[in-house]
Amino acid sequence: METAMLLFDKVTKRYTDNIVALNDVTFGINKGEFSFLVGPSGAGKTTLMRLLIREELPTSGNIVFDKIEVPKLPNKLLPKYRQRLGIVFQDLRLLESKTLEENIKFSLEILGKDDKEIKETTEYLLELVKLQDRRNLFPVQLSGGEQQRGAIARALANNPELLVADEPTGNLDPDSSFQVLDILNSINRGGTTVLVITHDREIVNKLKTRVIRMDEGKIISDTKGEYDTIVRPAKETSKIDSHIKIGDEADTDFEQKKEEEEVEYDSEMDKLDKRTLQKFLDAKITSINLILNLTEDDLLNLKIVKKEKKELEKFLKEYLNNKCKKDDKKQNS
Ligand code: ADP
Q1: How far apart are CA 162 and CA 228, in angstroms?
Q2: What is the rounded distance in angstroms from the CA atom of residue 86 to the CA atom of residue 96?
Q3: Atom 24 (ligand 1): residue with closest C-alpha?
Q4: Which of 124, 229, 319, 321 lies at a C-alpha separation of 20 to 30 Å from 34?
Q5: Atom of ligand 1 nearest to the CA of 48
Q6: E strand or H helix at 85, and its extent?
Q7: Which residue's CA lies nearest to atom 18 of ligand 1?
Q8: Using one digit for the tens of pLDDT, what is the confidence trace for 145-161?
Q9: Which residue's alpha carbon is at the smallest distance from atom 16 of ligand 1?
Q10: Contacts of 232 (CB under 8 A, 6+ apart)
Q11: What are the pLDDT digits (tens) for 89-128?
């Protein structure tokens, strides 16, 4: 059994009494793994990343990166710890007043590298992200995909052990998305552990690798496969050990445990038409939030017929209306 490089151990993050962004989250990521973290807006993905880089502290639980207990890390060791991570933020954070090449060089200068190393590493990184001929352009002059690849190159300047990319293909056309994915994949093949936070079904389905799915601050599925392959983590997943092994062997375990378990689902779903409900449960779609995330194509794949779809739309409309009313009440009280 391998030891996980990164462990989230029963992590809860409460921003206020009412806002629980992460609720008893446990998972491990092994060295060399490529994983996707998916889930609707508000699921807690960004919070998870902020805890990893120690921008926030957990309310309870622990985060361990290569034996370092991140919440307990003294402030003076934080820069060194963060240098072991490469983070590509959603807003990229490329410096607008510098060219792409200068952006990469700047990161290396901050790390105190000498001129020779700065030059060589910059060349290597520009080649890795296939942007040698765009080196003298400023961020605004680059296309969305090129900016994303540039930000990835810059995040790799410190040769991180773990690269985390937040929505690296958001707003990109399919071709540019696949180029970004190819680059992340080749970085991973080079030995870097990669975690990609995404909503992008296409890229998830292309790699068919591990998909950790979050919803309402919890991990609701953790399996290898496609975006919509939903396998609830086995009950034991609150213990770290069961997460440390991943891959095919673990998948088989999950499958077997799943067979033995009664499928639990959101009680609100009982109001659905029985046949529609069964179709969702067969596909392991066990919460309204997951239903709200489905596309037209998903509904087709699930063989939800026209009449069922109409009923479903009515149900979701009522559900959202009620939810809005409840939220308003909460806000006013
Ligand atoms: P995601 O990245 O999956 O969209 P987030 O981690 O951003 O989810 O948010 C999870 C929940 O925590 C949401 O309900 C969000 O409103 C809340 N939240 C996030 N950041 C803060 C904050 N700084 N203060 C209060 N609540 C926050």
Answers
A1: 25
A2: 20
A3: 15
A4: 124
A5: 6
A6: strand 85-88
A7: 21
A8: 999 999 999 999 999 99
A9: 42
A10: 220, 221, 258, 261, 264, 284, 286
A11: 988 889 999 999 999 999 999 999 999 999 999 999 999 9
Indicate which residue's Cα is closest to atom 23 of ligand 1.
15
- Structural domain span for residue 296: 260-332
Are 176 and 71 found together in one domain?
yes
CA distances from 44 to 12, 48, 197 (A): 10, 6, 11
What separation in angstroms does the CA of 299 have from each of 264, 285, 293, 294, 305? 21, 12, 11, 7, 8
Amino acid 235: pLDDT: 46
The verdict on residue 249 lying in a domain is: no
Residue 327: φ, ψ to 5°: -65, -40
Ligand 1 centroid to residue 21 C-alpha, Å = 6
Same domain, 285 and 195: no
In this structure, the dihedral spanned by the alpha carbons of residues 61, 192, 123 and 158, taken in order and rounded to 10 degrees, is 30
Q: How many domains does the chain have?
A: 2
Q: What average pLDDT is seen over the chain?
A: 86
Other Cβ atoms within 10 Å of 221 Cβ, number: 22
Quickly count: other Cβ atoms within 10 Å of residue 89's Cβ: 16
Q: What separation in Å is there between the alpha carbon of 164 and the centre of ligand 1? A: 18
pLDDT of residue 251: 41
Ligand 1 centre and the CA of 116: distance in Å? 43
Reply yes or no on whether the pLDDT at 83 is more than 80. Answer: yes
Give yes or no: residues 297 and 202 share one domain: no
Mean pLDDT, residues 62-80: 96
Does position 238 have pLDDT exceeding 80, yes or no? no
Q: Whole-prediction pTM value?
A: 0.71
The four Cα atoms 241, 242, 244, 246 give a dihedral, to 10 degrees, of 170
Q: Whose CA is nearest to atom 21 of ligand 1?
A: 15
Closest ligand 1 atom number to CA of residue 56: 23
Mean pLDDT of 303-310: 84
CA distance 133 to 151: 16
Q: What is the pLDDT of residue 126?
A: 97
pLDDT at 296: 74
pLDDT attached to residue 239 = 36
271 and 195 belong to one structural domain: no
